[in-house]
Amino acid sequence: MQPNWTQAQLDQFAKVDDFYISPFYSDGKTPGTPTWIWSVVSDNHLYVRAYNGKRSRWYQSAVEQQAGKIQLAGQEFDVTFQPIDADPDLTEKIDNAYKEKYGSSPYLAPMIAEGPISATVRVLPRDA
Q1: How far apart are CA 22 and CA 11, in angstroms?
Q2: Do β-strands 75-83 and 67-72 pair in parallel, antiparallel, or remain unpaired?
Q3: Residue 15, domain member (yes or no)
Q4: Tens digits of residue pLDDT in 95-114
Q5: Domain hosting residue 85, numbered range
């Protein structure tokens, strides 16, 4: 079974806004340049969305390699990436998490639009 974050980690991740994603390059071991993106916690999982949808470079690498590194809450983690299938209930929960965390931002509306929704990724810790 795939490991998940601890509840303490999820609680911390839900509050901070310092998520940097670095999917591996095609060699499967070299992390890409860290890219700052929004992250949310919903349904006891950590999620990110690509602002530019599926054509985003980091999203394409995350889907292809399914692994990489993230920096979050002042720490670095080895992770796996799982693209999310269309699920209206889960999408609504993730949308609500974005609204709660980033509700005052002018960038919120695009993040809960079709393009970024189609590029939602669950981020899970990877065993070393």
Answers
A1: 22
A2: antiparallel
A3: yes
A4: 999 999 999 999 999 999 99
A5: 7-125
> What is the C-alpha to C-alpha distance for residues 58 and 35, in angstroms, rounded to an integer?
8
Question: What CATH number corresponds to the domain at position 54?
Answer: 2.30.110.10
Q: Which amino acid is at 74?
A: G
Q: Does the predicted TM-score (pTM) go above 0.90?
A: yes
- Whether 2 maps to a domain, the answer reads no
Look up residue 121 and give its two tokens: 């990724």
Q: Based on the structure, what is the number of domains in the chain?
A: 1
CA distances from 91 to 121, 123, 124 (A): 11, 15, 18
Q: How far lies 53's CA from each of 7, 48, 114, 116, in Å?
A: 29, 11, 8, 4
